[in-house]
Design a protein that fits this description.
The protein has a domain of 203 residues: Ferritin. The longest helix has 31 residues. It is globular and about 50 Å long. It contains 10 helices and no strands. The chain is mainly alpha-helical. Helix 1 runs antiparallel to helix 3, helix 2 runs antiparallel to helix 4 and helix 6 runs antiparallel to helix 7. The protein starts with 23 loop residues before the first helix and ends in a 9-residue tail after the last helix. It binds fe (ii) ion (FE2) (2 copies).
Length: 297
């Protein structure tokens, strides 16, 4: 488990002392080091706004050294092995609070993942950085929505234990932008597309329309994140003369990506840029898997 790092100043969004626009990649690293979730979320949103306004340009050539203790995160939640996390019934308010907390933790990690893509990988086209700054800002929005909903249940981010699977994949792919694109947006975030409809249905079944509405916003944006992952994965494959399908299979194996399991959200995956061959491969995987018993989704 990693310890929390000291809080650092949030990303500034204006010109620096020399009157030059701040480098958004340097500012993304500062936001990644920020340990307070609300401050980090605000920094991520301010940084994307600054990039859109032209006051935070990206220096693609900058090779930044990795500081110790990434990512900045609060003392709580306690990080535990995923097997220690119990499922709770969505029928009780406490069970729904635990679910909202787990989703908030995913979004907190997702802010970190997007900021990490911005600062870590030098030499990419300008649009790559803008895309990932946009993702970071949207993840920050998702985190804020869930934190506010959690507060309505009388809880705050940090109140329940969580696991660190998302950041683990970030670490494994730290030296390989192609693997990062393959395995974070195209694999882990894409699994979120599949997970969303059954969770939404269970929230509605429990009468929690407000939380279900937040899931609608998140699903809409997450389709865009996976689309961005697909765009840059294919861009990198084409630039190196690699076959995208073979390369994905090789990287998933090499980096021990989680095995894909249905049911899949084919509509969302199609909108997110998976091609017909990839969707057909998922459909055949789905057909091989036993249907889970009712109520276990
Ligand atoms: Fe998100
Ligand atoms: Fe996302």
């Amino acid at each position: 488990m990693m310890s929390a790092t000291p809080s650092v100043a949030p990303a500034s969004s204006g010109p620096n002392a020399q009157g030059q626009p701040d480098c958004a990649r340097t500012a993304a690293l500062a936001a990644l080091r920020e340990s307070d979730p609300a401050t980090k979320a605000a920094a991520a949103r301010a940084l994307y706004a600054a990039a859109l306004a032209g006051s935070a340009a990206c220096s693609a050539h900058l090779e930044l050294d990795e500081p110790a203790g990434l990512p900045g995160r609060p003392e709580r939640p306690e990080l535990v092995d995923p097997r220690q996390l119990k499922r709770r019934s969505m029928q009780s308010p406490q069970g729904r609070a635990v679910l909202l907390h787990a989703l908030a933790h995913i979004e907190f990690n997702a802010i970190n993942l997007a900021l990490d893509a911005v600062w870590r990988f030098a030499g990419m086209p300008a649009a790559f950085y803008t895309d990932w700054l946009k993702v970071a800002a949207e993840e920050a929005y998702h985190f804020s929505l869930l934190a506010a909903r959690l507060a309505q249940y009388g809880h705050a981010y940090g109140d329940f234990p969580a696991h660190d699977g998302l950041w683990d994949m970030c670490e494994r792919t730290r030296a390989d932008v192609l693997a990062r694109m393959a395995l974070v947006p195209r694999t882990l975030e894409a699994r979120g597309l599949d997970a969303s409809p059954p969770i939404r249905a269970r929230l509605l079944q429990a009468g929690d329309q407000a939380s279900a509405a937040i899931l609608d916003v998140i699903l809409r944006d997450e389709i865009g994140h996976v689309l961005i992952g697909n765009r840059w994965f294919r861009h990198l494959c084409e630039a190196s003369g690699l076959d995208a399908h073979e390369t994905y299979t090789r990287l998933a194996d090499q980096y021990h990506a989680p095995k894909l399991r249905g049911p899949f959200n084919f509509e969302a995956r199609r909108d997110a840029g998976f091609d017909e061959a990839e969707l057909a491969a998922l459909a055949s995987l789905d057909a091989q898997q036993p249907v889970p018993p009712t109520g276990s989704a």
